[in-house]
Structures are given as C-alpha cells and as structure tokens.
Amino acid sequence: MRFLMACAVLFFLAGCSTKQGIALNNQQTVIMESPVLTAGIIPGTPSLGSDQGRQKATLSLSNNQSKSIAVHYIFYWYDKQGLDLLPFAEPRTITVPADSNVDIYSLNGNLDAYSVRVHIYL
Predict the structure, then answer these.
(1) Radius of gyration (Cα) for the chain, nearest Å?
(2) Which residues cross the membrane (predicted)?
(3) Which of 20, 32, 58, 61 is the most exposed place for a label (fewest CB within 10 A)?
C-alpha cells in the first residue's frame, strides 16, 4: 500500500513539473499545401527581427518555374507559451515572378510575439 501511495505522489509531482503552454513544434514554421510545391514554389525559413518597435517575420519564396505563380499566405503569431496572438492577420496574395525570389513579411506590434508560422496555399 505504501508503495502505491509513493508511486501516486511521484506521478503527481512528475505531472506538476511539465512546462505550461501548448506544445508547438518550432521546426514546423511553414505549412504548405502540396500543390504549392508542385507549382514550383519553394519557401525558405521564416526569420524574425524587429522594425520600429514591432516584431517582423520575413520569408523568402522561390519560383523555379518559367511562369509566374500567384500564392496566398497568412502569418500566425504565437507567444512563448505557444498561444495564438490576436488579432489574426488577413490572408494576402503575392505573384512570384518566373525564375525569381520574393520576400513576404508580417509585422506584429504585440510585445509578447515570440514565434511565427506561415501557411502557404494556391
């Protein structure tokens, strides 16, 4: 009986030691639907910086096709706990010229902005 009580206490303490927040995979910073890659658009990795006191996320898109491709995208911002920051950004569209690169970006004035994820679709 003492053994079971000791195990229960250990499990309780182990549960209390977990980090609060939502598990956010920081390696999956770009979410891209398969037709985007098939169309010839190759994204880079988002980089974070600052611009006049706001967080700025920049992502490079490469088009390796001989025709221009219209791409839709939306940036999602998260705090250190992995929670969404409001307000959500509006979807945007950009045309990536043939055989070239363009940079897309998002600005966020929320001081809690810590990480970003970009959703790209056609």
Answers:
(1) 20
(2) none
(3) 20
For residue 11, give the H/E element and its range.
helix 2-16
Q: How many CB atoms neighbour CB 32 within 10 A? A: 17
Its pTM stands at 0.77
Query: What is the distance between the alpha carbons of residues 10 and 34, in angstroms, rounded to a whole number?
Result: 45
N- to C-terminal Cα separation, the chain? 61
**1-13 residue pLDDT tens:** 665 555 555 555 5
* Domains assigned to the chain: 27-121 (2.60.40.3230)
Q: Tens digit of pLDDT for each residue in 13-52?
A: 555 544 554 455 667 899 999 999 999 999 999 999 999 9
**Distance (Å, whole) CA 90 – CA 87:** 9
